[in-house]
C-alpha cells in the first residue's frame, strides 16, 4: 500500500488463487496479469482440468469425480485397479500428503474419506463448493520421465512463446521436485491442444504443462498456472517468462510485442542444454547408490550425461552469487533425516 503499482508475481497456487480472487478489486495496490478465478479453477481443479483437456483434444488419465460417498460406492465395483485418489487442488490446502495409490478395492472408501476430510478447511477458506471432494484417476505405471511444455499466454488467450523439455529425475523419484531436465522439441499437436484449452477456459499468463509419457501417448497430468520450479531453464534457453509477465502486468503492450518478436525459437528448441540442480542431484545419486537403488554404472552414466551437456543451468548457484545456494541448502537441511529418506526412496 505504501508503494502502489508493484507487480505481484504468481509464485504458488496459493498466490495465484488470491490474485485471481482479487483481480477486479479496485483498491488492490498490486498490478497483476492472471486469469479470472473461473479461468484459474479450470487449471488447478484436477477434475475440471481433465474435462477441459478432453474437450481440447488432449490426452489425460481417465478421471472420475464422485459427488459424494454414495456415488463412490456405486462406482467402486467397476473402477479399474490400481487407481489413484487425489485432492482436486493444493491451493490454500493444509493437505501435505501425496496422491494415494489403491491396489485393493477395500482400501478405496477409507482413502477417499481421509483425503476429503483433510480438505474440508480448504473448502471453507476458498468458499468453492465441492473443492474438498477427491478425484480418482487411472494409474499409469510409466517411467519417471515427464514431457513438459512451458510458455506464456497473452491477454487474447494466444500462446506467444513456448518451449519444451523432459523431466529426467525428481526428488523423491517419481513424485517430487524436478532436479534434472533436458531440452526437447515442441510437440506441435500438443501445443495446438493447449492453445484450444486456453482459448476455451480464458486462461492467460505463465504456464507449465506436464504430460506422462506412455509409449507414443502423452497424457496431461498437471498444469501449473504460475511460476514453477525449473523456470531458469526456459530463461537461459531464450524464453524470459518473468519479463513477459511483467510487461503484461504493467500494460506495456508495445513492449510485450517487441519482446515476443525477439524470442529466439530456434535457440529454445535446440537440444544439448540441460538443467541440473547440482546439490540435490549429488544427494540423490549418493543416496540411491548407498541403498542399492541405483547401480554404480547408472550413477556413472548420469555423471557422464551431465558432463556431456552443451551447457548446464543450475537454478541455485552462479559464480560470485552464493547466497541463493546457501539459503536453499539451509532449507533442505532443516529436517535432514526426512530429506535423506526422500533422496533414498524409489
How many individual β-strands?
13
Count of DSSP-assigned helices: 15
Helix/sheet category = alpha+beta
What is the rounded Rg? 21 Å
Shape: globular
Could you name the ranges where pLDDT drops below 50 across 5 or more consecutive residues?
A: none
Spatial strand arrangement across the major sheet:
11-10-7-8-9-12-13
Give the ordered list of helices and strands: EHEHHEHEEHHEEEEHEEHHHHEHHEHH
Distance between the termini: 47 Å
Mean pLDDT: 88
Main sheet specs? 7 strands, mixed
Q: How big a fraction of the residues is strand?
A: 15-25%
- The oligomeric state of the chains shown is single chain
Q: Give helix % range.
A: 40-55%
Textual characterization of the structure:
With 346 residues, this protein is α+β, with helices and mostly antiparallel strands. Helix content is 40%, strand content 21%. The chain is built from 15 helices and 13 strands. It has helices at residues 13-21, 37-44, 46-55, 69-75, 108-118, 120-126, 188-201, 231-236, 241-249, 253-261, 265-269, 278-290, 296-307, 323-332, 336-344; strands spanning 6-7, 30-31, 63-64, 83-86, 100-102, 135-138, 146-153, 159-171, 177-184, 205-214, 217-224, 273-276, 311-313. The strands form three sheets. A seven-stranded mixed β-sheet has the order 11-10-7-8-9-12-13. Strands 3-6-4-5 form a four-stranded antiparallel β-sheet, sandwiched between helices. The longest helix has 14 residues, at 188-201. The model has no long low-confidence stretch (mean pLDDT 88).
Amino acid at each position: 500500500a505504501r508503494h502502489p503499482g508493484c507487480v505481484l508475481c504468481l509464485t504458488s497456487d496459493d498466490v495465484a488463487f488470491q490474485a485471481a480472487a482479487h483481480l477486479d478489486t479496485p483498491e488492490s495496490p498490486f498490478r497483476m496479469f492472471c486469469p479470472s478465478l473461473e479461468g484459474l479453477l479450470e487449471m488447478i481443479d484436477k477434475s475440471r482440468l481433465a474435462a477441459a483437456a478432453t474437450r481440447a483434444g488432449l490426452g489425460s488419465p481417465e478421471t472420475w469425480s464422485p459427488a459424494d460417498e454414495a456415488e463412490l460406492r456405486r462406482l467402486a465395483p467397476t473402477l479399474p485397479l490400481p487407481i489413484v485418489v487425489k485432492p482436486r487442488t493444493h491451493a490454500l490446502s493444509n493437505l501435505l500428503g501425496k496422491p494415494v495409490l489403491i491396489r485393493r478395492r477395500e482400501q478405496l472408501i477409507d482413502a477417499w474419506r481421509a483425503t476429503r476430510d483433510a480438505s474440508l478447511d480448504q473448502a471453507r477458506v476458498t468458499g468453492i463448493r465441492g473443492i474438498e471432494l477427491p478425484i480418482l484417476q487411472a494409474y499409469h505405471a510409466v517411467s519417471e520421465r515427464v514431457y513438459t511444455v512451458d510458455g506464456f499466454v497473452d491477454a487474447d488467450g494466444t500462446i506467444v512463446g513456448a518451449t519444451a523439455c523432459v523431466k529426467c529425475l525428481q526428488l523423491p523419484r517419481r513424485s517430487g521436485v524436478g532436479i534434472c531436465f533436458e531440452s526437447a522439441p515442441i510437440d506441435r499437436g500438443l501445443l495446438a491442444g493447449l492453445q484450444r484449452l486456453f482459448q476455451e477456459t480464458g486462461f492467460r499468463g505463465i504456464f507449465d504443462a506436464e504430460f506422462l509419457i506412455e509409449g507414443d501417448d502423452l497424457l496431461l497430468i498437471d498444469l501449473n498456472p504460475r511460476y514453477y520450479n525449473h523456470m531458469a531453464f526456459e530463461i537461459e534457453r531464450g524464453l524470459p517468462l518473468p519479463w513477459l509477465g511483467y510487461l503484461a502486468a504493467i500494460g506495456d503492450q508495445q513492449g510485450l510485442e517487441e519482446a515476443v518478436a525477439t524470442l529466439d525459437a530456434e535457440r529454445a528448441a535446440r537440444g544439448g542444454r540441460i538443467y541440473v540442480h547440482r546439490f540435490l542431484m549429488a544427494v540423490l545419486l549418493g543416496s540411491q547408490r548407498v541403498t542399492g537403488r541405483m547401480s554404480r554404472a547408472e550413477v556413472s552414466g548420469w555423471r557422464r550425461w551431465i558432463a556431456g551437456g552443451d551447457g548446464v543451468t543450475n537454478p541455485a548457484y552462479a559464480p560470485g552469487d552464493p547466497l541463493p545456494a546457501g539459503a536453499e541448502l539451509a532449507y533442505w537441511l532443516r529436517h535432514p533425516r526426512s530429506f535423506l529418506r526422500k533422496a533414498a526412496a524409489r
